[in-house]
């Protein structure tokens, strides 16, 4: 297996160690960006590890300047604002409601009972406009880190294999109305938007993720394994436990 030199695979003994390592490096990366430029930006993800990282950040935030941090979301389950399935609600409970963020710098994706009503296409278009508005030039900001979880079939954000959303080459945000994983209606950043991040981190654990992780690391076509198309401008980092890394050859590990 040949692995691109900008892909770094770190393997840890268990899921707690994966989350702890990712959250420690996230603190360091945010602080370094804030010291260099005065601000940092992170795209959050839902799922077990994504929300686990936020809980760990709350416990050990290091020197993060919360007021100078922009928060975006990689995808959202298009459900009412108070639905516990919402990534935004889970993120707020785990971290965002407990730290001194600037509300103008937190950018949730609309809920199905929000200002665009039950219209995921309108919510997607509005979020694309948010990304464009916060970009110096172009369609999206250059994020410091885009966090991603991964499903067993290789989905990242709400980009599932063999779908229009994963094939999208132009729009930064699209609606998904037939997600194979419930809930069916979602709004998601596309692979072109993910690739606006300096660093893309895929944080995932468990034996169910092993085949997709090995395929993505070795360059599987994104239409088949969406995680394979999630690449950072500077680096792509995989954080895996031993079970998820079981099929990744030792030579590919950092
Ligand atoms: O549905 C989703 O699933 C993925 C992966 O979740 P995990 O629990 O298997 O880590 C997640 O990254 C995505 O944001 C979410 O909407």
TrEMBL record:
Family matches, as PANTHER family: 6-PHOSPHOGLUCONOLACTONASE (PTHR11054:SF0)
Q: What parts of the sequence cross the membrane?
A: none
Instruction: Please explain the role this protein plays, according to its UniProt record.
Output: Hydrolysis of 6-phosphogluconolactone to 6-phosphogluconate.
Highest rank taxon of the organism: Bacteria
| Full protein name | 6-phosphogluconolactonase
Pathway per its UniProt entry is: Carbohydrate degradation; pentose phosphate pathway; D-ribulose 5-phosphate from D-glucose 6-phosphate (oxidative stage): step 2/3
Which family does this protein fall into? Belongs to the glucosamine/galactosamine-6-phosphate isomerase family. 6-phosphogluconolactonase subfamily.
Q: Which keywords are on file for this protein?
A: Hydrolase
Q: GO terms for molecular function, please?
A: 6-phosphogluconolactonase activity
**Pfam families in the record, alphabetically?**
Glucosamine_iso
Which part of the chain is the Glucosamine/galactosamine-6-phosphate isomerase domain?
A: 14-231
Q: Which organism is it from?
A: Rhodococcus triatomae
Q: Name one GO biological process term.
A: pentose-phosphate shunt
Task: Decide whether keyword Hydrolase is in the record.
Answer: yes
Q: Which reaction does it catalyse?
A: 6-phospho-D-glucono-1,5-lactone + H2O = 6-phospho-D-gluconate + H(+)
What's the EC number here? 3.1.1.31
């Amino acid at each position: 297996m040949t692995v691109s030199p900008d892909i770094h695979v770190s393997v840890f003994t268990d899921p707690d160690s994966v989350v702890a390592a990712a959250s420690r490096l996230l603190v360091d990366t945010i602080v370094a960006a804030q010291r260099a430029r005065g601000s940092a930006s992170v795209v959050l993800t839902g799922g077990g590890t994504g929300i686990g990282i936020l809980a760990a950040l709350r416990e050990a935030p290091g020197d993060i300047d919360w007021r100078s941090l922009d928060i975006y979301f990689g995808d959202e389950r298009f459900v009412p604002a108070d639905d516990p399935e919402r990534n935004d609600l889970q993120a707020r409970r785990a971290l965002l409601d407990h730290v001194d963020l600037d509300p103008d710098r937190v950018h949730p994706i609309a809920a199905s009972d929000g200002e665009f009503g039950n219209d995921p296409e309108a919510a997607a278009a509005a979020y694309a406009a948010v990304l464009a508005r916060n970009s110096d030039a172009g369609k999206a900001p250059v994020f410091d880190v885009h966090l991603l979880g991964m499903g067993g079939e290789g989905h990242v954000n709400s980009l599932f294999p063999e779908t229009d959303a994963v094939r999208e080459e132009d729009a930064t945000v699209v609606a998904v109305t037939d997600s194979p994983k419930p809930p069916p209606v979602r709004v998601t950043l596309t692979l072109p938007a993910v690739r606006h991040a300096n660093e893309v981190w895929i944080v995932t654990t468990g034996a169910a993720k092993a085949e997709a992780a090995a395929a993505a690391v070795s360059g599987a076509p994104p239409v088949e394994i969406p995680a394979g198309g999630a690449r950072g401008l500077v680096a792509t980092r995989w954080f895996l436990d031993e079970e998820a890394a079981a099929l990744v050859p030792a030579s590919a590990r950092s």
